[in-house]
């Protein structure tokens, strides 16, 4: 078996160009470096250097072997850095998954506080539908997830973050902005931006319009609440969305009005049960709750007890 000291001596010679310089780098003697190189050649069966008077010339085998050695040392360097981050605790890595509505709004605001508190943490953010996010967390592709619904079949730990009533969104100068509450009858003749018919939540809104006998004028369909709000701001129609989705548009001339009958939106944070005491996950959950409490307060809502 090759020893690490032999690999290290070979690498030092390749980088420095001589056994003397390599010995200085490794804080050892030149004969020790030469002995390590000879042993490495013996163990590998490779001729790594041509011995010329006063110098060693790497062979093609040495250059090929050196590429592999460099890859290994890069991996060791990564492990060393990871160990240092973990030792500092403020280090480490967290992979977060979220449904689109939360990934585009809440998550960036959570990250601003989370990264300020733990500047050494590296964070990776992914977005997908609720079932996809749950699957990522279940197989530990991601450490923690933010979803709009939970499925106990995944066997994950979860905490209820919020329950809010949907709102009707419109430009501030729209005629319906004068009303305190919007009903299906108010939207009878308005261009409407809807979830696609296959999306979860479409039927909740659709049922209220069917019960009221209102046939909506659906101009556009989109799965993404951020796109919905942008389309509303372009004057392409009105819509009914989770009020958290509207927060990024508060200063762009869009307003919200309560919609009746109510349509409930839920939010949950999920993570593997066996990682309930993980320090980074616990810190992230706490930060999510802190930021969300402020946002819900600005909407006149309360977080679950």
Automatic annotation (TrEMBL):
<keyword id="KW-0805">Transcription regulation</keyword>
<dbReference type="InterPro" id="IPR036388">
    <property type="entry name" value="WH-like_DNA-bd_sf"/>
</dbReference>
<dbReference type="Pfam" id="PF00126">
    <property type="entry name" value="HTH_1"/>
</dbReference>
<dbReference type="InterPro" id="IPR036390">
    <property type="entry name" value="WH_DNA-bd_sf"/>
</dbReference>
<feature type="domain" description="HTH lysR-type">
    <location>
        <begin position="2"/>
        <end position="59"/>
    </location>
</feature>
<keyword id="KW-0804">Transcription</keyword>
<dbReference type="GO" id="GO:0010628">
    <property type="term" value="P:positive regulation of gene expression"/>
</dbReference>
<dbReference type="GO" id="GO:0043565">
    <property type="term" value="F:sequence-specific DNA binding"/>
</dbReference>
<dbReference type="InterPro" id="IPR000847">
    <property type="entry name" value="LysR_HTH_N"/>
</dbReference>
<dbReference type="GO" id="GO:0003700">
    <property type="term" value="F:DNA-binding transcription factor activity"/>
</dbReference>
<protein>
    <submittedName>
        <fullName>LysR family transcriptional regulator</fullName>
    </submittedName>
</protein>
<comment type="similarity">
    <text>Belongs to the LysR transcriptional regulatory family.</text>
</comment>
<dbReference type="Pfam" id="PF03466">
    <property type="entry name" value="LysR_substrate"/>
</dbReference>
<dbReference type="InterPro" id="IPR005119">
    <property type="entry name" value="LysR_subst-bd"/>
</dbReference>
<keyword id="KW-0238">DNA-binding</keyword>
């Amino acid at each position: 078996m090759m020893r690490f000291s032999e690999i290290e001596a070979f690498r030092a010679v390749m980088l420095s160009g001589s056994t003397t310089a390599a010995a200085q780098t490794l804080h050892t003697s030149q004969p020790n470096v030469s002995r390590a190189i000879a042993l490495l050649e013996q163990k590998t069966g490779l001729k790594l250097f041509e011995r010329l008077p006063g110098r060693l010339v790497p062979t093609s085998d040495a250059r090929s072997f050196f590429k592999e050695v460099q890859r290994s040392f890069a991996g060791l360097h990564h492990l060393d850095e990871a160990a240092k981050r973990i030792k500092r605790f403020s280090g480490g890595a967290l992979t977060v998954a979220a449904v689109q509505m939360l990934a585009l709004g809440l998550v960036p605001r959570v990250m601003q506080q989370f990264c300020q508190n733990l500047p050494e943490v590296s964070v990776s953010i992914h977005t997908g539908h609720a079932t996809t996010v749950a699957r990522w967390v279940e197989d530990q592709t991601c450490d923690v997830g933010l979803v709009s619904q939970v499925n106990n079949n995944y066997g994950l730990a979860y905490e209820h973050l919020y329950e809010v009533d949907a709102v009707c969104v419109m430009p501030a100068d729209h005629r319906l902005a004068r009303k305190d509450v919007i009903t299906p009858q108010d939207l009878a003749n308005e261009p409407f931006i809807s979830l696609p018919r296959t999306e979860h939540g479409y039927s909740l809104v659709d049922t209220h319009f069917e019960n009221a006998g209102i046939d909506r004028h659906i101009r556009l369909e989109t799965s993404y609440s951020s796109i919905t709000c942008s389309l509303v701001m372009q004057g392409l129609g009105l819509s009914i969305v989770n009020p958290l989705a509207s927060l990024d548009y508060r200063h762009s001339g869009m307003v919200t009005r309560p919609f009746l009958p109510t349509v409930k939106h839920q939010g949950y944070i999920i993570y593997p049960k066996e990682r309930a005491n993980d320090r980074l996950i616990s810190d992230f959950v706490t930060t999510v709750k802190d930021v969300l409490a402020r946002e819900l307060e600005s909407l006149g809502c309360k977080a679950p007890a």
